[in-house]
Amino acid sequence: MSKGYLHQVHPVLPVKDVVEALKFYVNKLGFKIAFADDSKEPYYAGVIRDDIEIHLQWHHAKDWDKSVDRPMLRIVTQNIEALYEEYKKQEVFHKNTALRKTEWGTREFAFYDPYMNGLTFYRDV
């Protein structure tokens, strides 16, 4: 019997408006739409860039009233400096966002999407 092999993970991020989330990920972060459950009013969709696929799922407004932390994704990347400059030009950063070398041996930067899902991009140093 062969051993199971983990190949990829596709995180699902909660969003209030899938169309607006798609616009952010496509127009600001350079992703492409991989799929959507409806072409006009999707409730579930996926975006892809290079080897990363993220799913976006609509959540009812009442779900946002709960004080639940949003997910934080850590995305391994190459050419971290170029990606930082690309996203800096798109004005998606918080005023304190910076490309930093960490004590745990990475070079990284992080920010939130419009729905407070955290995105950290990093590489090992």
Describe the structure.
With 125 residues, the protein is of the alpha/beta class. 17% of the residues lie in helices and 34% in strands. It is globular and about 40 Å long.
CATH topology descriptor = 2,3-Dihydroxybiphenyl 1,2-Dioxygenase, domain 1
- Class, according to the CATH hierarchy? Alpha Beta
Count the strands? 8
Helix content: 10-25%
Can you say what the CATH homologous superfamily is?
A: 2,3-Dihydroxybiphenyl 1,2-Dioxygenase, domain 1
Q: Could you state the order of secondary-structure elements as H and E?
A: EHEEEEHEEE
How many domains, as an integer? 1
Number of helices: 2
What shape does the CA trace take? globular
Based on helices, strands and strand pairing, what is the structural class? Answer: alpha/beta
Tell me, rounded to a whole number, the average pLDDT.
91
Radius of gyration: 16 Å
End-to-end gap: 38 Å
Task: State the CATH architecture.
Answer: Roll
- Percent strand: 25-35%
Physical arrangement of strands within the biggest beta sheet: 1-4-3-2
Residue stretches low in confidence (pLDDT < 50, at least 5 long) are none
What does the main sheet amount to? 4 strands, mixed
Descriptors for this entry?
125 residues; 2,3-Dihydroxybiphenyl 1,2-Dioxygenase, domain 1; four-stranded mixed β-sheet; alpha/beta
Summarize the structure.
With 125 residues, this protein is α/β, with parallel strands linked by helices. Helix content is 17%, strand content 34%.
How is the topology of this model organized?
Elements: E1 12-15, H1 18-28, E2 32-36, E3 44-49, E4 52-58, E5 72-76, H2 80-89, E6 100-101, E7 106-112, E8 118-124
